[in-house]
Amino acid sequence: KKEENIQTQVIYAGSQVITATEIKANVSMPEVAERAAATGADGVGLLRAEHMILGTGVHPGKILKDKGEDALIEVFSEGIRKVADAFYPRPVTYRTLDAPTDEFVGLKGGEDEPHEHNPMMGWRGIRRGLDQPEILKCELKAIKKLREEGYRNINVMIPLVTNVDEIRKVKEISNEVGLKLMQDVEFGVMIETPAAALIIDEIIKEGIDFASLGTNDLTQYTIAIDRNNENVSKYYLENHPAVMKLIELVITSCKSAGVKTSICGQAGSRPQIVEKLVEWGITSISANIDAVETIRNVVARTEQKIILEAIRKQK
Ligand code: PEP
Ligand code: MG
């Protein structure tokens, strides 16, 4: 009964519920930017790059080889610009390319992708980005170019981090192209491996503005379930206690160090998990476009509950 009362007491600004936690949207395709912006989301917590490439029908390596660097920079900047425009001045977090080897095989030039038995455990994420710096550089140059055009609402994060060297190297590469991470743009890492979660203190020391929980991968790597394998999909539990423990560790460690936290995996669209994240003190939640409103309401109710409990404790 008390819960019902709480639900009616959330605070509104116009028609929108007010929350202290930011509620953002995930955007996988620049084409849906307008629809995402219309949800009233506070920004984009995850802008994926893969569809920008898929939309061209050509492998990025081939674009680079046949048409040169400017052509590939243009592909990235065109996609990012669409989203940055739709959301301006709300912040948009661009996640550098995270294509497993099976994702681009169908593209022109994709036949050169290595064949791997388990691409999810293979050549992807920032480790691949660092092995192919010529592509990563184009992404960073695209962001630099957009900044020069006046877009000050773009942030950068890197996927599948497993050690601090990766962070150091990305910063070096970015410096080389004239984009200073943490100065020109906010810089974050995705925490989507148990390794990254467990060394969160070292990652913080290395220097980041924010950590974003990629729970789709964090779940698969924590409980050894290939997220694309139907035979084991029933065991894929985003709220597995081990996953939740890692999430809590990341949020609370970041919080005590003054580093912002976010979530951009599917778990951020699940009300019961979101309640926990808010209780632990997450800074922002990025949900699916269709879940933004529901999640905003769940967060508002949870925050209300926290406030009421705190006040009652003082009585
Ligand atoms: C994740 O792993 O939770 C995530 C958001 O990244 P992706 O789904 O693109 O791997
Ligand atoms: Mg991921």
TrEMBL record:
It comes from the Archaea. Residues 13-303 form the PEP-utilising enzyme C-terminal domain. Signal peptide: none annotated. Catalyzes the phosphorylation of pyruvate to phosphoenolpyruvate. Belongs to the PEP-utilizing enzyme family. This is Phosphoenolpyruvate synthase. It comes from Methanococcus vannielii (strain ATCC 35089 / DSM 1224 / JCM 13029 / OCM 148 / SB).
